[in-house]
Design a protein that fits this description.
Blueprint (H helix, E strand, L loop, with lengths): L1 H22 L7
Length: 30
């Protein structure tokens, strides 16, 4: 389960980074 937990942690970190970029007005779609 250790590997799966690491993957989930990385996904959550990437999701937070994407949210920060959207908040900064840097949406790729915009």
């Amino acid at each position: 389960m250790w590997g799966a937990e690491m993957v989930e942690r990385e996904l959550q970190r990437a999701d937070r980074l994407a949210a920060q970029l959207r908040a900064a007005g840097m949406e790729p779609e915009a």
